[in-house]
Write a structure and sequence with these properties.
Oligomer: single chain
Shape: globular
Structural class: mainly alpha
Pfam families: HTH_18 (PF12833)
Protein name: AraC family transcriptional regulator
InterPro entries: Homeodomain-like_sf (IPR009057), HTH_AraC (IPR018060), TPR-like_helical_dom_sf (IPR011990)
Radius of gyration: 33 Å
Transmembrane segments: 21-41, 406-424
Number of strands: 0
Domain HTH araC/xylS-type: 486-590
Distance between the termini: 84 Å
Order of helices and strands: HHHHHHHHHHHHHHHHHHHHHHHHHHHHHH
Strand content: under 5%
Length: 600
């Protein structure tokens, strides 16, 4: 605003004489008074609009109107700092949505070439936070890294603390819980060392909560209890009781794991009164209240909280994962109570949410993928379908002798026979493919043993896996082809293909050749392109490890995929099925069956 006023004065008055007249001086004084008053009124107006925004609930019409008015007035006077504030109001209003990311981009673009304090680092930090809440974790990490470089350069401690906080949350997402705990411990130490508890009490409380939650995740329950109590006390001293209900919820979870169910219930029930507008946390709360009641043998009372989750899911589909847990518990409860009708209802809802989760698999965060993708997910779905059919049959049995019911029963029976036949036939086919795979594995094992013996006899001879005809067809000098093939064999023998994101260019560089030569040699000698060649090596290696390593067999599909060089479980499963004709989950199950039989 100050710069704008100065520009206005210099434009309006160009002196015609060396010294201004008394009249001109009077006019200048009046204008200074007017512009100062305008500046003060504008400042008051901005603060008033901001107060209106703060008083409105998120994503409400009142909040959006206040943010729009603030930004329009800021642009009208071309005040960059105020424009940034306006964009930040939009980020706050649309927080946790893609729109918020859009407005953080506007902040970065606007402040890139300005000398505005704390920017554009603050813009990158806010963008990273919104990307995190939209489950775009890799992009979030990149923005946090950019913000961190700038914060270190400007020695902005507040930004450094916030960045560390979200890096810790990302570690939790990737299930690196011990590393996350270390980050949160260091961050609290950093805050205290720099006397930031009073300077930024909200960030202090967020860091304290993250530490308490991390202790929970790592089951360091005594430490979790201490930090929770400290956090509850600090949040009650905050003017707005910042994070108080979240501390209560997390403390309730700690008490649940410590089997202090009465204390857990007290904290969780208190927290529910504050969480009416935060459906996800509220539903998680209800699930833990049910667990506490179930542990105390009060299952009937606990059912009420499961139905509350179901009711919220009907209105707010974003609580789908909490709903899935609730439907699993309801299925178990109704099965134990022999209530076929209610159990069928729970199973049908469970199948629906599972289908939605599967459809949205590609866009989910890593943590959710690991939670819901297990080696048994296919068989679990099949079991639910069979349970559903059995329950339908039970419900039809009441009027078994009526013609209509008999007809329905016949249809259901035919469907069941068809399903059983389908799965039986599929299992027969899969069994043959599995046995064939095991025979192939044993043959390769014998062949490798022979090769080892030959190398012992003539250790100086390098085996080149290609015929003379193949080498000639490549169209390159024999010495070059032989050299690359020897190095390629070492690449396979040392299992370097298990590294992720291995490119043809990178391998060519390691083998002292170029991509064109390497591509020709692989195509001609292996009969496939580079991508298929890498997949073949990784799948063969996975099969060997699963067959020989008991610990490796205990991994999830996700962990196996990452260990042998794939970026995700889906690409691994596709490649595995393409090569073997069976799913990795089935392969694992058959291996375990073999081991069980051999042990008996």
């Amino acid at each position: 605003m100050k710069d704008h006023t100065q520009n206005l004065i210099s434009f309006s008055f160009v002196p015609t004489r060396k010294y201004p007249t008394y009249f001109q001086l009077s006019i200048i004084c009046i204008l200074f008074g007017i512009t100062s008053a305008f500046s003060q009124v504008s400042s008051d107006t901005f603060e008033a609009i901001k107060s209106d925004f703060d008083a409105s609930s998120q994503n409400s019409e009142e909040a959006l109107n206040a943010a729009t008015l603030f930004l329009a007035k800021a642009k009208e006077i071309n005040d960059v700092a105020r424009i940034v504030e306006g964009y930040e109001l939009f980020v706050s209003n649309y927080s946790h949505t893609a729109k918020a990311i859009f407005y953080t981009d506007s902040i970065i673009l606007l402040t890139k070439n300005t000398k505005l304090d704390n920017y554009p680092a603050e813009g990158y930090l806010k963008k990273g936070i919104q990307l995190y809440y939209n489950s775009k974790y890799n992009d979030a990490l990149n923005n946090f890294a950019t913000a961190n470089d700038m914060a270190l350069t400007s020695k902005n401690i507040k930004q450094q603390i916030s960045i560390k906080h979200y890096i810790g949350l990302l570690k939790n997402v990737s299930e690196e819980r011990e590393e996350a705990l270390k980050i949160f411990q260091d961050n609290i130490g950093f805050i205290r060392k720099n006397n930031f508890e009073d300077k930024d009490p909200e960030q202090y409380l967020k860091s304290l909560f993250a530490l308490a939650d991390s202790y929970n995740k790592n089951r360091v329950l005594d430490s979790a209890e201490v930090v929770h109590q400290r956090g509850i006390k600090a949040s009650l001293q905050h003017p707005n009781q910042y994070l108080y209900p979240w501390f209560l919820t997390s403390y309730g979870i700690t008490s649940y794991y410590k089997e202090n169910y009465a204390t857990a219930m007290d904290s969780l029930l208190k927290a529910t009164d504050f969480l009416k507008n935060n459906e996800k946390t509220l539903c998680s709360n209800y699930l833990y209240i049910y667990k506490c009641l179930e542990k105390q043998g009060k299952n009937t009372e606990g059912l009420r909280y499961l139905y509350k989750v179901d009711s919220i899911y009907e209105q707010k589909p974003k609580v789908i994962f909490q709903a899935r847990d609730a439907y699993e518990f309801l299925n178990a409860e109704h099965k134990a109570a022999n209530d076929a009708k209610q159990q069928l209802s729970a199973i049908e809802k469970l199948l629906v949410v599972d289908e939605i989760i599967t459809e949205r698999y590609q866009n989910l965060g890593k943590k959710i993928v690991q939670k819901y993708e297990t080696p048994l997910i296919i068989s679990e779905t099949e079991e639910l379908l069979i349970q559903k059919e059995e329950l339908i049959s039970q419900l039809q049995d009441k009027n078994f002798l009526s013609e209509k019911k008999v007809f329905v029963l016949i249809i259901v029976s035919v469907l069941l026979v068809f399903i059983i036949f389908y799965f039986f036939r599929r299992n027969v086919v899969y069994k043959k493919r599995f046995n064939s795979l095991m025979e192939e594995y044993e043959q390769k094992k014998v062949l490798k043993e022979k090769e080892k013996e030959e190398k012992k006899k003539v250790p100086s001879i390098e085996k080149i896996p290609a015929s003379e005809t193949q080498k000639e067809a490549i169209g390159l000098p024999k010495e070059i082809v032989d050299g690359i093939l020897v190095k390629l064999q070492k690449f396979e023998d040392t299992h370097r293909f298990t590294k992720k994101n291995y490119t043809q260019t990178k391998l060519a560089k390691e083998l002292d050749t170029n991509s064109t030569y390497l591509s020709k040699i692989i195509n001609m000698t292996k009969g496939m392109n580079f991508a298929n060649y890498m997949n073949e090596l990784r799948i063969d290696y996975a099969i060997t490890q699963l067959k020989e390593d008991k610990v490796f067999r205990s991994y999830t599909i996700k962990a196996i995929a990452m260990d042998v060089g794939f970026n995700n479980a889906q690409s691994f499963s596709i490649a595995f099925h393409k090569k073997t004709g069976i799913n990795p989950s089935y392969f694992l199950k058959q291996l375990e069956n073999q081991k069980s039989i051999s042990n008996n």
